[in-house]
């Protein structure tokens, strides 16, 4: 970890209480209780349409719950000014268009916006924090490239760097590995795990159960907008639950390289 990436406090417990979200008469999230602790990398799992993205947006304060609340260290997220919230919580979305022709470095620098005055430009500190974030995700060589010209996987890593430049207590990621090759997937998951070890609160929506089993200590499994199981990943990802939620036969072995659970499917 680069020095610029260290966060400043050990706070960061994020809790959703009786969270529900209804839009156009559809109840997408149905009374979810969840707690995400700093230092415990957490996977948000579930089939397509289970409500993972919606829950992440609620936990980030981007969406407002229809009922229930999200608390960060006991403070209601909705009571925080949006600038304060952005200094504490960063969301990495699945795909993000910059909307204008920005260099990759400038996209990362956007992560510093919550720390800048209304008409102030980026400080030397902002530049060095953005540079460190870019290096942390292994994208230093791409600083001067037009963001729109980057591949999906490269853009995904730039978005992760932007979130790191925010120096948040809480990092929420929506399928952070879906565009990445296998080496880059493992690199990103190792980085998230090391951020967790450094005391960040990290929660990632993932489709790959084996990435969750390998790198996440805690898992929250959703189906149809509700929590089916939550707890230590190896207790959540058991064959009976996988069968019930995903409708497939699975067995859990031991990964001979890491000793972590390895899920095989038929
Ligand atoms: N504005 C909306 N109106 C009605 N339904 C919606 C709306 N937005 C999302 N949904 C539905 O809510 C459900 C949950 O969506 P969400 O994106 O949270 O699921 P997800 O678990 O992240 O799915 P995926 O794994 O496919 O990304 C889906 O069935 C989706 O079609």
UniProtKB/TrEMBL annotation:
<dbReference type="Pfam" id="PF00005">
    <property type="entry name" value="ABC_tran"/>
</dbReference>
<feature type="domain" description="ABC transporter">
    <location>
        <begin position="14"/>
        <end position="249"/>
    </location>
</feature>
<dbReference type="InterPro" id="IPR003439">
    <property type="entry name" value="ABC_transporter-like_ATP-bd"/>
</dbReference>
<dbReference type="InterPro" id="IPR003593">
    <property type="entry name" value="AAA+_ATPase"/>
</dbReference>
<protein>
    <submittedName>
        <fullName>Histidinol-phosphatase</fullName>
    </submittedName>
</protein>
<keyword id="KW-0067">ATP-binding</keyword>
<keyword id="KW-0547">Nucleotide-binding</keyword>
<dbReference type="InterPro" id="IPR017871">
    <property type="entry name" value="ABC_transporter-like_CS"/>
</dbReference>
<dbReference type="InterPro" id="IPR027417">
    <property type="entry name" value="P-loop_NTPase"/>
</dbReference>
